[in-house]
Amino acid sequence: MSKKTLFDKVWDAHVIDTIANGPQVLYIDKHLIHEVTSPQAFNELEQRNIPIFRPNQIVATADHNTPTQDQHLPVKDALSGNQLRQLSENCEKNNITLYELGHKYNGIVHVMAPELGITQPGMTIVCGDSHTSTHGAFGSIAFGIGTSQVAQVFASQCLLLSKPKRLRVSVNGKLKNGVLPKDVILYIIAKLGTNAGTGYFCEYAGEVFENMSMEGRMTVCNMSIEMGARGGMIAPDKTTYEYVKDRKFTPKGAAFDKKVAYWKTLPTDEGATFDQEYSFDAEAIEPMVTYGTNPGMGIKITENIPTLNDASFEKSLAYMDFKKGESLIDKPINFVFIGSCTNSRIEDFRVAANYVKGKQKANNVTAWLVPGSKQVEVQIIEEGLKDIFDAAGFELRQPGCSACLAMNDDKIPQGEYCVSTSNRNFEGRQGQGSRTILASPLVAAATAVEGRIVDIMKQLN
């Protein structure tokens, strides 16, 4: 019997039909939708008089356009309000479960689906959102799709796809104190570049990922897309089963045990081959920051910006107002954002609270903490983290995508730097003319306290 990878096992189990020398028809277990990419797809089906094939396999939430203050009031922004209204109407019309603004399960789609047990190992999961790869942390095949593909899944619960190639990135050893999952993925992307994963589905393997919490694994898989991969996966194990158990939509009792027995068959077979492999040493990784306008432009916090003679590199530095060879340590920062589908889970806020406890935010800093879901917001309050943040001068807002992509009121002003736990540092991503420095929640919290970028390792040791 041929040796198979985790990716092959899940993919092959979902192939319904194969076109000779062509694409395959892949069955989709879960279709997640939000207010941004679904309206056009709903309209297309309506115009063609095609019903939604399996509404029970679709889950909707409002996240991109949602305000993070006064969520009980009508949405002020007309465009955002309209998109949210359309989502509610479309879901009601088509019998689709929707966790709208204010619902106790509302939140960022890639945060609320795992915490509700909607996301499970061995599934195929799609969403009209590039960071769907987050769900691969559970050993599922999860990826973002375009509007026409959203319509395809609505109509048939299937997609016509060419099978990606297999990539494995292994990181072995023990991480240094202060190095978080966000640093691991920023390091990998900085080393491999933003197109190393193009055409591949990436499996993350090795001791570092085996020892990571589910929150950490989600952070890593979330950013697979930033190195060009179609998605990222981590094999399910005891950590996965324990996280999934007893969640709202997880099977219970004997049904759960039966699922686990299947999930145990999913990890990559010993001796299975990959089309491409990379490996890294955990000890080489340190807290990371980005200095440019793509997530691959990252350095260890203690390193200096490279000195390359390259037009696009120089254009990035000009936008960021940085110089070649410059150190970012002591760079003054006025905005800090802890949130987004990359780092808005309870673990991220525990890390931040642990650091800021008993300290004060710098006067020049606006520090926004935006939970990824209503459930995370409740945890922050119940665990007493809100009290710590309040005392330190941080502002805890309501759940949503917030300043990750500025499709709402949370925008970083032109020309300002923001140390952000989100996933993208593109030009204008957090607001027109804003400058984004990607970092871990720990580095972000330290920046807020100091009002500048600091060598966090020095403080911890």
Describe the structure.
By secondary structure, the protein is an alpha/beta fold. The chain folds into 3 domains: about 5-160, Aconitase, domain 3 (2-Layer Sandwich), CATH 3.30.499; about 165-235 and about 265-285, Aconitase, Domain 2 (3-Layer(aba) Sandwich); about 290-460, Aconitase, domain 3 (2-Layer Sandwich), CATH 3.30.499.10. It contains 16 helices and 19 strands. The chain has helices at about 5-15, 40-45, 80-95, 110-115, 145-155, 180-190, 205-210, 215-220, 240-245, 255-265, 310-320, 345-355, 375-380, 385-390, 440-450, 455-460; strands at about 15-20, 25, 30-35, 60, 95-100, 125, 140-145, 160, 165-170, 200-205, 230-235, 275-280, 290, 300, 335-340, 365-370, 395, 415-420, 435-440. The protein has a 5-stranded parallel beta sheet with strand order 5-4-3-6-7. A 5-stranded parallel beta sheet has the order 17-16-15-18-19, covered by helices on one side. Strands 11-10-9-12 form a 4-stranded parallel beta sheet. A hairpin with a 5-residue loop joins strand 1 and strand 2 (about 25). Helix 6 runs parallel beside helix 8 (about 215-220) and helix 12 (about 345-355) crosses helix 14 (about 385-390). The radius of gyration is 21 Å and the shape is globular.
